[in-house]
Amino acid sequence: MIVYILCFVLFLVGIYGAITKRDLIKIILSISILGYSVNLLFILFAYRSESIYPILSKGKEILPMVDPLPQALVLTSIVIELGTTAMLVALAVRLFEKYKTFDITQIRRLKG
Amino acid sequence: MILPYYIIIPLLTAFIISLIAGKKDIYAIWLSFIATTALLILSIYSLLTSKHETITYTMSGWKIPFGIVLVQDALTSFTLVTVNIIAFTAILFSINYIRYLSSDWKYYALFMLLLTGMNGVVVTGDLFNLYVLMEIALFAAFALVAYGSRAEEFEAAFKYAVMGSISSFMILLGIAVTYSATSYLTMAKVAEVLPLVDKKVVFWVGALFIAGFSLKAASIPFHSWLPDAHSSAPAPISAMLSGVLIKALGIYVLLRIFYNVLDAPEIFLKAFLVLGTISILIGVFLAIGQWDFKRLLAYHSISQIGYILLGIGIGTPLGILGAVFHLLNHAIFKGLLFLNSGAVEIALGTRDLRKMGNLSKILPVTSQTSLIASLSISGIPPFNGFFSKLIIIIAAIEANLPWYAFFGIIGSLLTLASFMKVQRYGFKAENVIEVASNKIDWRMNLAMILLAALCILTSMMVIPGIREVTLDPVVSVVANKTEYIKLVLGGLNEN
Fold first, then answer.
1. Do the chains contact at B292 and A80, CB–CB below 8 Å?
2. pLDDT digits (tens, 9 = 90+) for B320-347
3. DSSP letters of B378-409?
4. B201 at interface of A, judged by CB pairs closer than 8 A
5. What is the pLDDT of residues B357-381, one digit of tens each?
6. What's the count of helices (H) and strands (E) in chain B, helices before strands?
7. ipTM of the predicted structure?
8. A76: closest chain B residue by CA
9. In chain B, what are the domain boundaries?
10. A69 to chain B nearest CA, in Å?
11. Contact predicate A23/A95, CB 8 Å
12. Domain A2-99 has CATH 3.40.50
């Protein structure tokens, strides 16, 4: 049980960072943490104690294997996360070119 | 066999555009125009011929609990038509509009990806597939918000990207919890198994989904990204984002998950009521003080989404009828208003209402259609906005929720006030502007006239004979809640 709770704490750490940090790069890192925690939780949900890798061959039973589906899902979600991070970094670079700063309190031409 | 084409056509078009476009945008324009026309025809055709049965399509023949399944029922066809009408008019409007920013094929490729994501989210019947397609739509949306390459646009896009990612991870966490509790990802199977597991799971899943998808739909505590993103994007993209993206990714999925999968738990319906009412009031209060035309419209999107959430929260068939009807109506009139704002921006080079004026002379079509849209959004009969708001308010009174009905009426009056401001200070102001700096070509005018005609035509859908074939099947899909399981699992399998 404790691992799930710790994983959820990691998720909250990510949200906390994304909301409270003022540096663009720290915000991007926080969002990555958010993604890692969800992926980790997926893998934890699939895990069964004392089970084996899920590759089917002759003479192997299905029952003591870990669930392979979340692992496939996590692979997809890692790729999506890469896309998210690349998009955010690209935007951060262009923002730096325009505003000459990474501090979000200085980047506020939009308001009202 | 039609179902996969809603995803294949726009996705293929996006890649073909990037392959053959070269430096000029003419091929990109033709390809995307053909694709959106085909999608519009396809969606209307399937709305008319499906006879409101549930059709499923299993990808590569994998049977239902194992593979990805695409589902089409009345709610899906209805939302698809809404999405593709706005996409068609937005492309029509873009042809000339985008040339003022840059004549580049990238815009059309991204637009097609946005459409792929939205159509995909609507047709899919699988939770994880929904997440993937949602991310496709969001990535395209982030890039398109920043398309103009000005400092403000990057700022808005970054804010949108951060909020969008947080909400996506919340949704993914919700999907993880659902999977661990039920061992299924197909929505119909999840709905079947969920009543058998611990009740706490429903609360966890519901809380994560309501936070995630409300962020996408921008109801009030989660709204902060919307005014920036929707007002910074190019006008046809604002029409897409405000008109259909927040509905396809937000409202549609909320309806599907909370009614068809989670069986509409009482506590979440109450949450929708409260979120909806707060959105109506605060959205309209924030809107009324704006002088930037697009920003004002963006705040009104929050307030109108509030009406839809209110209708969902009431939960009676009449409330749901109002909600789905308002979903279509808001897509049409808000799309039209954003196209108007784009036309004004091209012609006068400003979005500030105080600098506009004399528009009925120099932009007659824009001025007339904006009047129709303003009357629709403020709920003046005989335009469509009046009927859907009326249905929602009557439903609230019938469900013994008089205060919510009262707040709905207050919101509607304030909307009227703020659009009187738009017309008085913007379109009919006394500033003497003799000539427009740029011309509005016939394609932009045609797009606006089409949507203005739809503002009047869709109000016909309240007539009982027409309502029975258009709106009632949609309502029965939502109101029958977990009938969805039987319809999908025992549904007409076309493959």
1. no
2. 999 999 999 999 999 999 999 999 888 8
3. TT-TTSHHHHHHHHHHHHHHHTT-HHHHHHHH
4. no
5. 777 788 888 888 999 999 999 888 8
6. 21, 3
7. 0.94
8. B132
9. 277-462
10. 10
11. no
12. no
